[in-house]
# Entry
Amino acid sequence: MSLIDKLKSDLNAALKSREPQKVETLRGLLASIHNEEIAMRSKSGESSLTDGDLIGVLQKEAKKRKEAIEIYGKAERTDLENKEKEELGIIESYLPPALEEEEIEKIVRSVISDGGDNFGKVMGSVMKEVAGRADSKIVAEIVKRNLGDK
# Structure
């Protein structure tokens, strides 16, 4: 079952079991995916997204929720912060498991040992390898730390 089919199936299940927060979140995700399909169609003429593209959309949505949680936390709006945390939890359940820092460190060291000494080149290679399983901020910190060790 593809990711889009799973999202639609889970939306139907959430509607039947009357879970308003999950319904709202999944409808928002499906709308974002639809918008991405439209954008892709206007760029390249293709309208179908791969699972990799779908994961990219989910990661963007998760990032929005994380930023909102931070903002609401600073503003002491716990009601909105909790809502965003719940949405983030739903979104993260569809994302592949994140890599641990040790695993990212191994990948970074491998790329550097293969002759990477430029931050941009190393970041590009590492981000291709982790493919949505790690936050770019964490990867950047690890790359900086390892390039500084050289």
Observations:
- Helices lie at 3-16, 20-44, 51-74, 78-92, 101-113, 119-130, 136-149.
- Residues 101-149 form one domain.
- DSSP finds seven helices and no strands in the chain.
